[in-house]
């Protein structure tokens, strides 16, 4: 649209310039006529009166031409202004185009950056998966270590309780001993005071010393049972453990250290449980998605193998995906819907094969080993089994152990074990495709020779 406006403006400008050139030519012509009129006026003043009317008309024509020339000059000026505006608009559009080009380059750069970011995120995802495996291994190790440390902490707590009990008993005994000591000191002071008083009284009242009194009255009996009782009680108190406070402080420090270790283990346990929760969510989502896909393919393949009938997969605990089981319900043609445990041997084998190939439809395996999977099948079912093998052999390589000739005919290569000598086994192989090709080429050669 802007280019069209520019073309229109250019054409209008060209027309205006052509009109201006014509007007200028006309102006030059008029000027020439005025000059001729002046010369004619000077030369023919006598004819001035006669030509005055003509002169007036010429003046009027000249005025009209001047007015037309002024209008055209004004139009030319307007066209020039429009041309300047169009040029300004063109410059602005060129700037917008340059800005759009720069924006496009930035978009390309951002796209490259996003691709790099996606690659980085993919690498980080792989690294996170590896880290998750490492974390799960660390969790198992730390759970074992945690159990050992919990047992050790419990043992230390038991020792700490026992030591606290011993410490309290020791403190009680020490307190009781201190009380007894105070009582004995009081008794000793009392006895000393009494002895001093007795000595003073002996000196004052009896004019005798303590030695003389002991020599004179030492044979007198005293309360010996009381003395023995007091001595035995002191002995039963035992020695006081003076290092009990230091042992208590050491056990408290060890207990605090164990508590900090247990707190770290609990934190790591919480982190690992969070990671396990995320893994469980992903597992449930993947399981549900795979289950839905396998269920659809199982119904289709079951119908092909049984030439009709219906089958279904049912979750035993739909509300608990992580702990649920999967029950197979089968409905062969002509029978009612029953559990797989109520089917015959051949029906069970076909149902199991349908489930196996359903998994291959969702996630093909590069190899599959089957050990006499066709043993319980009759000829018709073996034919369906072989046809199913041929359909999936494009994505999966099958290794089938069989004694069925029909299954052997469908194989590409046969491997067999024979015993030519007693006790000596030998492995032989036959490439059926190559043998078939050789047979075909031999038949053609004979046909050519006969011809």
Describe this structure in words.
This protein is mostly helical and 451 residues long. The protein folds into three domains: 2-123; 135-211 and 231-274; 292-450, 3-Layer(aba) Sandwich (Rossmann fold). The protein contains nine helices and seven strands. It has helices spanning 2-43, 48-206, 210-217, 224-236, 244-306, 345-362, 379-392, 405-409, 432-450; strands spanning 310-315, 326-331, 338-339, 367-371, 397-401, 413-421, 424-431. The strands form three sheets. A three-stranded antiparallel β-sheet has the order 1-2-3, covered by helices on one side. It has a two-stranded parallel ribbon with strand order 4-5. Strands 6-7 form a two-stranded antiparallel ribbon. β6 (413-421) and β7 form a beta hairpin. α2 (48-206) packs across α5 and α6 (345-362) runs parallel beside α7. The longest helix is centred in the first third of the chain and has 159 residues, at 48-206. The protein is flat. The two termini are 82 Å apart.
Q: What brief labels describe this structure?
A:
76% helix, 451 residues, 7 strands, Rossmann fold, mainly alpha, single chain, three-stranded antiparallel beta sheet, flat
